[in-house]
Amino acid sequence: MTLLPLAHGIGSVQDPPIPMWLAYYGGAAVLVLSFAALGALWRTPRLEGERTRSLVRVPTAALRVLFGAVGLFLFVVVFAAALVGERSVGTNIAPTFIYVAFWLGLVPLTIVFGNVWAWLNPWRAAADFVAWCWRRAGLEWEPPFTYPERLGRWPAAFLLLCFAALELAYTDPSDPRMLALAVAIYSWVTWVGMAAFGRGVWLRAGEAFTAYFGLISRLSILTLHEGRLALRAPLHNVARNRERAGTVAFVAVMLGSVAFDGFGRTSYWQDRLFRIDTDLGAIAFNLVGLVVAVAFVAVAYVAAVEVARRIGGEQARLEQAFIGSLIPIAIAYVVAHYATFLLVQGQLLIPLASDPFGYGWDLFGTLDYRVNVQPLSADQVWYLQTGALVLGHVLGLVIAHDKALALFGSSKVALRTQYAMLGLMVLYTVGGLWLLSRG
Length: 439
Known about the structure:
By secondary structure, this protein is mainly alpha-helical. It has a three-stranded antiparallel beta sheet. Helices cover 65% and strands 3% of the residues. The chain has one domain. It has helices at 20-41, 60-84, 93-102, 106-113, 117-120, 122-136, 154-168, 176-197, 199-205, 208-216, 247-264, 267-274, 279-312, 319-322, 327-345, 349-354, 378-408, 411-417, 419-438, and strands at 52-57, 222-225, 228-232.
């Protein structure tokens, strides 16, 4: 088995096929031209509401039990491996499964098949099983607390920031024992939240990964609609007029954490990190950088939306209405930074499945599988990264433009309100390209 160190990302191109200044100008030009085309050709809102085409009926109850059992089984195996398996990144399945299969691998599955995490969620499956047993015993359970609506997604945003801090700020995020501790703490918080406020309430508001994959699934091709598998019209219902409180902070963590991961691998950051003598100091330094990156994303977005609000003469705040425009950008950052990491490191799951604990087993005869460390050429990686960034920002412009038309009515007013959003998209695009070139 070929062993690879578990890194945050693989595949940044130091020698792109075209000069970087041309990439910066080219990316900005695509956005400006897209903005002009939207102003000339897209004069009425088209993305309001969800449009689906029904395909086939699916047995949702049976599938929920089946997928829940699979998710819970994988959870037990990964947690046990992290807790008692060999303390090695290359031979213990826990780090690769958590950071690669779960955190990254579910993203493309969600975009294609919808919110698969809602079916696989092991914490929900375990809670559902306990609730079923409770009812079979003739007992009733009423959550003792009412969830405060003003909290919205703030708990989920905080827990997602904690996960990002473990991955990006902690000095040894792939240590199986630390991952076991993190899983135990997160599980305790999740189950206590479900018991206190109700399963559905806490999942929607406080469970970070349910919120994360739920937002990503708004761009999915397939969805479940009234018990039937259905095709979804692209981009419809991504941006909504009202979101739960804390959604802006949550999306800022989604986008800002990936941006910091890129910046944290630049020579500028690494040189300063190298000068810190203690692990605690390095963790604190990284944590400050992560928080600053998240805050920068949030402040830049809020400022752009505030400009739009004032130009449009709107009295109510609009941060929630436009936050959907950042969802494709967050996905684009994930693809640009981690696609090759997923393609390379994900192959390790093949041998690790045969020996998840690192004990020398070969359950499926795949222990000697050799990893292809270069599935894409350097130029292919660059085109994938650049294309993902530009496409994500163009889609963000489309969603924001359509929402402005729905809010302000007049196409001329809507177009003027989006100048600041265009500037924001150009900033994010050029910044993303710069991070990729420096990683």
